[in-house]
Amino acid sequence: MSALLPRIQDVASLPMMVKQGMERSVELQSDVPLQVSRKHYLSLWNNEDPEGDIWTSGSPSSHTVLDVSNITLLSSLESCFRNTWKPLPLLVKIIHKSRLRYYGKFGLQIDYPFQAYFEVADQSGTMSLVLWNELCPEFYQKLSVGTVLYIQNYSLKQSYSNRSHPQMDHHQMKTFHSVEICLNARNPTSVVTVVSAKSVLPQWGLPEVSYLFTTRLQLDELSNNSACDVICLVTFVGRVERVKSKGKKGPEKFWTYRWIHAVDGSSDRPFILEVFSSSQPEVFSRICPMTYLVCTQMRVCRVEGSLPYLTSSCETETFITGYHKGQPYVSDPRVKTFIQWTKTLKDNVVLQKTSVGGHYCYPRPPQTFTQSIADASAQVPLVAAADLKKEMETLQYREHKKVAIQGQITAVRYTKHPKSTESRGTEEREQVPDVAPDVCEPNTQDHPSTAEQTTAPISTAEKISVRGIKRRIQTRKVKQFSLSLRSMAAKRRSSEIEEEEEEKRATLDLKTLRMSQTASEIKTQMSYLGKAAVGRSRNRKCLNICRSNLQPTHWTPEQSADTSPPVVCPGFYQVTILGINKQMAIDAAFLPVVSSDDPRAVALPQDPHGNTMLSCLSSGFLCPLSHSQSTLPQPEEVLGSAGELEDMHLVCILDLCHLGGDRVEVLISKVYRVTEVSKCTAL
Questions:
Q1: Are 381 and 371 in contact (CB under 8 A)?
Q2: I need a labelling partner for 681 at 20 to 30 A (CA). Which of 334, 591, 634, 652 fits?
Q3: Distance between the two ends of the chain, CA-based, in angstroms?
Q4: Confidence bin at 61 (pLDDT 50/70/90)
Q5: pLDDT attached to residue 28
Q6: Structure confidence at residue 132 (pLDDT)
Q7: In this predicted model, which residue has the larger pLDDT, 185 or 498?
Q8: Residues 299 and 194 both lie in one domain
Q9: Residues 191 and 257 in one domain
């Protein structure tokens, strides 16, 4: 099967073996689950994305002649509510569209438990419209902002007060909040006609769709929770991660999101965007550097000590290059101004400043830690070291969680990323495809426990050559590459004394100070380091999109083999944290920001510090940040100051992310000394 699949271009063309007599079964011919009494699939990784062939789209709009002589206006619906009357038709335009909402749960006897909100308008004002159940698969993909609808046989209900609403002040129209229009497949059976753009007449008086585009320069003036639209050029795309939705009722649900940096030429600072999947899976998965990105109804988030960022709302829609055609915003003057600015750019210059994937988290933790261990709802909950293992075991695929633990740092080790994939040209990198992926990405399974790390560590060059031998690389140039690295390693270790000195410079293990007294008491030690933690530069589109996206929902033919793009950071520190109960220890990776070109450098406090191990863990970066790494301290210099961490009680902020299988990424983003912990926190 593994040899057959790469040659298959269309999975649907594969024959299906079925039980005799079931060849013409309706279930087999339909895109529905076979083993359960369900009529639709759910998205693998969240609850908002449409999944399956039942979600129709692209159907032609109606060109039929409409009788608009007997329609009613939205302004008259409030007075008709609760009266027994036959509703007159409506002629409205969609001005906002929300993401899908799935409300299914065990025992619910509804075939398609979906709901979607739209804001519609006519010449009298705006009102909410709700698409229910079976009508969602039929119409959700067809209805977009700017679409004109002719609606018959609808019902009216009192508005649901606990839902979000888009900000629509810029439309300058009256909003009717008391009732909402409901469209159902039965009781009554609603009739929805999508009117083609060519059939829309000016005398209908339907309003134009209005946008509120904001530049990066103007963003600094907006208040918290304000809504705005943005158009920008993407320079950084983070990996897709998942987070549990905040709803406490019903089954567990997830949202998928990714962090994005984008520029618009109005400021030296980029937009920092937290973009959630908005029921547009194709657009969301294809966001990549150098694409034009439009996000509507984004909300401003302000956190003390950080630059403002934008996050998606329920009404956010995203569009990228290839999806802009026909959208109402293309004629907006601010969009045209942005397009003119992009024509002044040189692609190769912008491309050198782009990166994809890796660990990214914003905003940074505050200067003072104030969460209490009793506050389970805190954004950064303080957990006991003994409970940390359970936290990681309960993580779902690509779920991200931030936690804080108390303890002491007992060991620090530095591991370099090999320079081969960074310094060699593209042609040479492509000649060593079997080596590059593992070299660029440290494997969690190859890291020994901290107790084993007290032995002499092998150098970077040795790691490459040993792995190359184990893989039995047959390519001559790969062999030559490994041999040259071994010869380089031999020259660097001309004597046993020099080797010992080099190891001391590369590793500082604080267990030699105090850990030996408690090593026998430690019941559990966890060592995790995810492959996906390190971001990658350059715009190798297909490869980088695959790396930063989730596991695909549908199988596609394998892409041609490609090598890993160069990593952004030169190496990482492995920090061993011993819990205050002395029963649990965990290894966490620390990836300091070492260059101002790193996306994580945006909004970092630029206060200088002494580049000690403690100051680096507290600030998250090496000082000073610049485009060149020549002025930065060497890892052995930073490790040389780690002695001050001995017996120091700390609160460590950890970022956890499940990478699939048994791989859990644990990164340390900040440490607090006792003096930086608020008194409300129980120590």
A1: yes
A2: 591
A3: 57
A4: low
A5: 60
A6: 96
A7: 185
A8: no
A9: no
